[in-house]
Amino acid sequence: VTHALEWPSLTVQWLPDRVEHPDKDYSTQKMILGTHTSEHEQNYLMIAEVQLPLENAEVDGREYDDESGEAGGFGSGGAKVKVCQHINHDGEVNRARYMPQNPFVLATKTVSADVY
Question: Which positions carry the signal peptide feature in this UniProt record (predicted)?
């Protein structure tokens, strides 16, 4: 699974919860990412939702996607990665992690020693 972002991310972490959809051939899981922009652009802590194929998902290798130039693949059609939340961040996000006891609590670290 690949996805082009507007700005590079120096940190990525999967969130622990995964949802399997009974009528779909994929599961959905969230991840946290942080931006590393130029000096004059706003940085963000982002939460993205990712569709991951199930182990038993059938993939049709005969399908060709003109737009991506790829044959076969999972989930031809819709986006596999969707950024669903942008949180303004003061400075680049060098590290972002969730709290294991409560994944709704996130901490970030910038190029300085500041932790948010």
Answer: none
| Residue among 71, 75, 70 nearest 58 (CA) | 75
Q: What is the pLDDT of residue 63?
A: 61
Q: Give the Cα separation of 101 and 1 in Å (integer).
A: 28
Task: Tell me the three-class secondary structure of 31-66, residue by residue.
Answer: EEEEECCCCCCCEEEEEEEEEEECCCCCCCCCCEEC
CB atoms within 10 A of CB 98: 18
Q: What is the pLDDT of residues 49-99, one digit of tens each?
A: 998 888 776 666 666 566 766 655 554 444 588 999 999 998 899 999 999
Length of the chain counted residue by residue: 116
